[in-house]
Write a structure and sequence with these properties.
The strands form 4 sheets. This protein has a 6-stranded mixed β-sheet. Strands 1-13-10 form a 3-stranded parallel β-sheet. It has 11 helices and 13 strands. Strand 4 and strand 5 form a beta hairpin. The protein has 2 domains: 287 residues, TIM Barrel; 31 residues. With 329 residues, the protein is of the alpha/beta class. Helix 2 crosses helix 3, helix 4 crosses helix 5 and helix 7 packs parallel to helix 8. The longest helix is centred in the last third of the chain and has 25 residues. Helices cover 41% and strands 14% of the residues.
Length: 329
Amino acid sequence: MDSNVCVWRGQAVFIWQVKQCALPLPAHSAEAHEHLAVTARQAGLAYVPVKVADGPYRYNQVAGGSGGLGWRDEILPGLLNAFTRAGLRRVGWHYLYGAEPEREADTAAERMVTLGLEGYILDAESEYKLAGADAARRFMRRLRKLAGNIPLALCSYRFPSYHREFPWQAFLDEMDGQRGDAHMPQVYWVGDARPDGPALQLQRSMKELRALKDLPVAPIGAAYGQQLESGYWRPSPDQMRAFSRAAQSAGCAGLSWWSWDSLRAKDGSAPGAEGKLGWWDAIAGLGADGAKRRLRFPSRWSSAWCAWRRRRARQVGRYEQEERQNEFR
């Protein structure tokens, strides 16, 4: 990875199950990998986070190892290589449970090395409310010991004030913005029909998360539908465009969407697909008039990143000054 570029810069779309996103092609086929890579570039994506692990286990594997048992790693290496050839960064995500934090950390480190990942997303949600702070600390400390300085993103709830039992600080204590670590909140505005609802929710999410720790923010927006008591909810393309503009205006490091699986099922296989809802086009920066509107996110050395680094330097300077003063007390 270019050290001058934030790994989370640009737009991304999460993949959960490669086999669903690759249909009708087999998930392990070179044709499927090339199709997904071409679609990502067509949509202007900078990377595609693929699920690489679930708890202590690898994910997106092919069944049938030695003797017909076990699993084979025949999907992810080829897919990530196709992304690399298309100019995309190699990023994986991992759903965490906290029941076996050391094993989860071991699996994460193995996936980083084996797949040559440039960034790693930690998806920790309700299970870690039960596992608690001790499990989170054990996971993070072991992961840092094994994986070194690979950039991490904590992917969790949008509003910490609603989830105080989640061990936020135990995760964040081992994260550092200068290393490339980031907040990656799930800002899914489910049920919010206001045109400016996504932007308002993003503003609140960033304020609450930065109060916990001042890290770059790379939010995830909604590109899926959900059944509610009031009916079936789905984001409008205009809301998605407004969310993109809000993330850019707020100086976010980048922007992601959940998920490719939903896009494939609800909106077709690519921008401009037949029978579409307009989600792919919104992600690709196409306006309702079909005109392309390019989003620009800051690099590590842009004004937004430099402002963040100056804030951090002032904080570190204050800490060092206090330490020097304490030496003479």
